[in-house]
Amino acid sequence: MNSTSKLGLALALSSGCLGAFGAWNMAGRIQSFNAAESASARWHFERIDARSTTFAGRKLTITDTRTPQDTAAMKIVYGDNTFTLDVKEPPAALPDLSAYTEWLSPLYFAPIKDGEISVDWTSGEGVRLAIVNRSTAGYDDRTWGSVRVKDWIFEVIELKSDGTIDRKRMQYRDRRGRVPASINEKGEIVTTDILPIEERTWQWQAALFAVPRLQISRYRYGSDAVEGTRGTPGMGWTLPVTGFSAMGLFIGVVMVMAGSVKRKPQSAIIA
Q: Considering the entire predicted model, what is its pTM?
């Protein structure tokens, strides 16, 4: 075995051992991420198209109305509470809420545990009720109507079983993890009452019901098995170690194969 083969064998063995160590730790970290992900709450949603329903013994009624500026709005009555939502003008006047599908959705929702919806639909125990309204058009008329997804602002309203109403204005974070509404035209951070829609919350999934269907794929979790979450470290050092070890193993095998090639001696050339 020549020096090239010896060096290649040493490189292949060391890289293989290091790669196996990195891959083992990587698998453990991925397993931890998947375990934490499966333990987190997941949600089942059912859209309501009816303008009138009953929840927790209180009647919910949704009717069309107009603002003082003569723009479209909805009057919502829940028990003893009444409020108004500014909405986009519907394409047609319909007896139900199907005309508002792309920007407003009343939703029943419940948590999913161990692959099953943990709720009794007969008694309503465990069911929650929310209304999600996309309050911005999300496109710029000056640019031929190009969609500006990051500018979408959602009103997320939970109608609670005790008769109270929890109303928030929320927005998906941008790729840098910022709330777009908190950044002015100069790139400076400004104060805003708009809250971020955090990953793996019911608000994240509920807001998708007020989004045009062609834009759903735009929203993806920023945290995954590679990046990790607050409770899991992600792949971290295991990813580059395993990757470079695989490269080292490949180069070592190539060197061993190259060193084992036997070359015939060149014949003397007789003039």
A: 0.68
